[in-house]
Write a structure and sequence with these properties.
four-stranded mixed beta sheet, alpha/beta
């Protein structure tokens, strides 16, 4: 069993997932707009929002959508942990994700890792970025 994070956004899903595909070297497998759902409760203002999106990358996947129906709050208390094989790869991902975001713990050496840091990106996603110890 392998858990898959499902991220919720407020109208920025397309931009966020396209950015994550660049950062993690992934591919967007599918992206369905709310207008494709043919749901009369979805107003015109949210017709271009994303109802479901899938992104695969080496070793994992992310799923996401915009909060079309309302009610999804901030991701407080939850972070997506990404581990990279090398410190330079982890540092590069951390730096990209930090652009326009807020660094909560600077990327650096810890007792468990040659490189680790935490941040909230410009889309509101909380990340823990780690380099494998080996």
């Amino acid at each position: 069993m392998n858990p898959t994070p499902y991220l919720c956004f407020q109208g920025t899903c397309r931009e966020a997932m396209t950015f994550y595909a660049e950062v993690f070297g992934g591919k967007i497998d599918m992206m369905m707009e709310a207008s494709e759902m043919q749901d009369p409760t979805v107003g015109d203002e949210k017709a271009g929002w994303i109802a479901h999106c899938g992104l695969t990358f080496p070793g994992g996947e992310l799923l996401a959508s915009d909060d079309i129906m309302g009610g999804t709050g901030a991701m407080d208390g939850c972070s997506v942990m990404m581990s990279f094989p090398t410190k330079p790869e982890a540092q590069a991902a951390f730096s990209r994700l930090a652009e326009g975001g807020t660094v909560r713990m600077d990327f650096g050496e810890t007792f468990w890792s040659p490189g680790f840091g935490t941040l909230t990106d410009r889309f509101g996603t909380h990340w823990m970025i780690d380099a494998d110890a080996s």
